[in-house]
Amino acid sequence: MPANHQPENESTGLENPHKPYAAFQHRAYRFYLCSFSFATLASQMLVVSLQWQIYTLANRDEDRSALLLGLLGGLGALPVIFLSIFAGQIADRRSRKRVLMAMQGVLIFCPFVLGVLALMDRLSLPWLFGFSLMNALALTFARPARSSLLPTLIPREDFTNAVTWNSTVFETSSIIGPAIGGIIIAHVPGHVGASLLISAALMLSCAVCTFFLPDRPRTEKPESLSWASLSAGFHFVYRNKLMLAVMSLDLFAVLLAGATYLLPVFAHRLGLDAMGFAALRAAPAVGAISMALIQAHTPPFKRAGRTMLLAVAGFACATIVFGLSESFYLSLAMLFFTGVFDNISVVVRSSIVQMLTPDSMRGRVSAVNFIFVGSSNELGGLESGLTARYFGPVRSVVGGGIAALAVVAAIALRFPQVRRLGRLRDLRSDDQPLALPAEVEARGTDT
After folding, report:
1. Which residues contact 219 (CB under 8 A, 6 or more apart)?
2. Which range marks the domain in which residue 309 is found?
3. For residue 11, with 0-12 CB atoms within 10 Å meaning exposed, 13-18 middle and 19 or more buried, which class applies?
4. By the number of CB atoms within 10 A of the CB, which of 91, 179, 313, 441 ranks highest?
């Protein structure tokens, strides 16, 4: 993904020098990135701790633990599916910073209580699922506020660079979080409880950084609360076929080909301990951060749409090989490549969604995006758990990868806008958001 390109110089026909660190010159973005990194670390430690706790409470029974891990994913998807449109409306009507800080208070409370219960040896499944649901509710309202806040903090020309570095920090945190969690689970007395309390402390650090973000005043009057206003995000996405296509591609690929929630089961099949499980959990992040750094320091994709389609296909193929693997190192390599391919998809999709959306709609469109993306992660966990329960984990993962390949083919045929998409910097500004302009589509055919 490109870092930062200015418009072409008409007199010379040359582009200005590539600036891989353009976003960092903005103070507000630096605070935003610190807040985001702490939040991701906290979230990753929470997930890995709860997954291991469920696996332990299930007495390491493969079938039962797979079902319970899938239910954990399904529980996290419920608020995303049913409340995201309300969360997006709130992000467009209220101060995004204040909404974000209020939700971060809940996100501190949940892992803190879970950690205390774990240290008291009273963290049973009902408590675990109950506070996981509360945590998911807070995330549902926090994500649209955070996502729609970013474009207000930096100039438009630096936005794609910021998305790339967000992805780098997210994946770095996704490596460090599970690694810390795995070390604590393996070596610290009261392991899961200690990991959960550290998660709460990291989320507190996130809230402190969020406090220092500017609270930009709105220039437009918010729409009145109505069904038309609530559903505006869906109508916006539906009319923008390019945006609809990339969201659908992400939804079905992750829903069908994701294997994250079954990693404890595959770690057991490979004879791994907690550290081995943490290594598998971190491998996709290692791949993603490697690709993010490459994208930040290289020129833009000339055919971003085709590149995204190939990346999702690569993600599906790596998932298939992972499901069939009986070798720790081959499994690790395939998870690494799922991260490589997924990072390309994430940066392209995120840039398209934000660059084609006006500020007055960003909360609601971000909420729709999270319905597609957020629910795909959690529903993918539910799908993986249920299919693994009845067909076995290998068939679940391999079958999902094959189905994801079929989705890539279907999207490529149904939405030619994706195949024709060229450089992301050619996307029009948010004053013409409902369709990709004809001249941009034409440039998408350039080499």
Report:
1. none
2. 24-217+226-443
3. exposed
4. 91
Is the pTM higher than 0.70? The answer reads no
Look at the block and give the residue holding tokens 């109505």.
226
C-alpha–C-alpha distance, residues 124 and 103, integer Å: 25
Total structural domains within the chain: 1
Hey, how many other C-beta atoms are within 10 angstroms of the C-beta on 297? 13
Q: How far apart are CA 136 and CA 77, in angstroms?
A: 8
pLDDT in tens, the chain (447 residues): 333 333 334 334 444 556 788 888 889 999 999 999 999 999 989 988 888 888 788 765 556 776 787 778 777 778 877 887 788 878 877 888 999 999 999 999 999 999 999 999 888 889 999 999 999 999 989 988 888 888 888 887 777 778 778 877 877 787 788 778 877 877 765 578 888 999 999 999 999 999 999 887 655 555 555 566 667 777 888 788 888 888 888 778 777 777 777 787 888 888 887 778 878 877 888 888 888 888 777 776 778 788 889 999 999 999 999 988 888 999 999 999 998 998 888 888 877 777 777 777 777 777 777 777 766 666 666 667 677 777 778 888 888 889 889 989 999 888 888 888 876 666 654 433 333 333 223 223 333
Question: Does residue 142 contact residue 356 with C-beta atoms inside 8 Å?
Answer: no
Judge whether 257 lies within some domain.
yes
Nearest Cα to 153, choosing from 33, 19, 233, 6? 33
- 389 inside domain: yes
Cα 85 to Cα 93, 214, 239, 310, distances in angstroms: 12, 25, 17, 31
Contact 255, 374 (CB under 8 A): no
CA atoms within 13 A on the CB side of 292: 26
Q: Exposed e or buried b for every residue in 163-197, given b needs 16+ CB within 10 A?
A: bbbbbbbbbbbbbbbbbbbbebbeeeeebbbbbbb
On whether the CB atoms of residues 74 and 67 are closer than 8 A, the answer is no
Helix, strand or coil, per DSSP, at residue 434: coil
Domain assignment of residue 6, yes or no: no
Question: 96-119 and 27-57 helices cross at what angle (nearest 10)?
Answer: 30
Q: What is the CATH number of the domain that holds 320?
A: 1.20.1250.20
